[in-house]
UniProtKB/TrEMBL annotation:
Family to which the UniProt record says this protein belongs: Belongs to the C/M/P thioester hydrolase family.
Source organism: Nocardia vinacea
Domain Acyl-CoA thioesterase-like C-terminal residues, every copy: 159-278
The organism's place on the tree of life at top rank: Bacteria
Chain ranges of the Acyl-CoA thioesterase-like N-terminal HotDog domain: 48-117
InterPro entries for this protein: ACOT8-like_C, Acyl-CoA_hotdog, Acyl_CoA_thio, HotDog_dom_sf, TesB_ACOT8-like_N
Keyword hit for Transport: no
Gene3D superfamilies linked: Acyl-CoA thioesterase, double hotdog domain
Protein name stated in the entry: Thioesterase family protein
Keyword Ribonucleoprotein: no
Keywords: Hydrolase
Organism classification: Bacteria, Bacillati, Actinomycetota, Actinomycetes, Mycobacteriales
Length: 299
């Protein structure tokens, strides 16, 4: 698994990270009226569920709760870390249900303690009245790039290729505050909402690394060692239908970094240049303070 929160140490005791496991974790199952359950993954080197996976859980839960409408956008604040070693309880409350739009509040708990909460917007769809989009930047296509092979990033069945090999653990390699990453999954999920969840899971991966790129002496490999990082808020909007077995380009640009924070904006494009989703991510990036308690803290 890879994210802005990932640990480069191998997950020795955990189940294998593969596409089927990612889908299993995000294909939440009904457990009562307005309630869904996400299974535990198991022990890992760093027992923290990444923000993109939690956001994917919310997308799937809302899609199952309001099956006659399509998830248009989802936004969550991640206020407390969730562990891989216990299941997650997800509550969906339709605040307003209409023929055109439904607004749903989603809360994710673990051990009866809230971990994150957000809002999901669903709609019934409509034909184009107008259509325009930000064009995709010209970057190397995936067939000219090598797969991302940093230890700890591998997920069997997922191929990631970073333009210019810019996701680099070397803290002295500098560049602009942006990352362009091609991603493709090997197997087609059975349901559209699982395509959407897998797309969502990758949207929080790149913000911290992009924020650190312009600054010599700071790099992603320092996360959770000498730098305290984590995703605190994420919003994703889905524009068109998506097929995660086709190459998708995540174009992430950090628009601000300072005061212990980083903010990014991004789009997801098909290889043909069609924008299928947009996202914004807020992250924590600050010096690592000595631990004074063993309790789980903010992501």
């Amino acid at each position: 698994m890879l994210s802005d929160e990932f640990d480069t140490q191998a997950d020795i005791a955990a189940p294998a990270w593969n596409q089927a496991e990612l889908q299993r974790l995000m294909d939440v199952q009904p457990s009562g009226a307005g309630r869904y359950l996400a299974p535990a993954h198991g022990p890992t080197a760093r027992d923290v569920v990444e923000a993109g996976q939690l956001l994917g859980d919310a997308v799937v839960a809302a899609a199952k709760h309001v099956p006659h409408q399509r998830v248009t956008s989802a936004s969550m604040i991640f206020s407390r870390a969730a562990a891989h070693t216990a299941p997650l309880d997800i509550e969906v409350d339709a605040l307003r249900s209409g023929r055109t739009f439904t607004t749903a509040q989603v809360t994710i708990r673990q051990h009866d303690s809230p971990r994150c909460a957000g809002i999901v917007l669903l709609d019934s769809g409509a034909p184009d009245l107008i259509r325009s989009a930000t064009p995709m930047q010209q970057v190397d296509p995936p067939d000219r790039l090598r797969p991302l092979a940093i230890p700890g990033t591998e997920v069997d069945g997922r191929d990631m290729r970073v333009v210019d090999d810019a996701y680099d653990p070397d803290p002295n390699r500098v560049g602009p505050p942006e990352l362009f990453v091609w991603t493709r999954f090997r197997d087609a999920p059975e349901h559209d909402y699982l395509h959407t969840a897998l797309l969502t899971q990758s949207s929080t991966h790149w913000t911290v690394a992009a924020a650190l790129r312009p600054h010599a002496g700071f790099g992603e490999a320092m996360a959770h060692r000498s730098i305290s990082t984590g995703i605190t808020m994420a919003t994703i909007t889905f524009h068109d239908e998506v097929d995660v077995t086709q190459w998708l380009l995540y174009a992430t640009r950090v628009t601000y970094a300072g005061r212990g924070h980083a903010q990014s904006e991004g789009q997801v494009y098909t290889e043909e240049g069609t924008v299928v989703a947009s996202y914004s991510v807020h992250a924590m990036v600050r010096g690592l303070e000595p631990r004074t308690t063993s309790s789980v803290t903010l992501l």
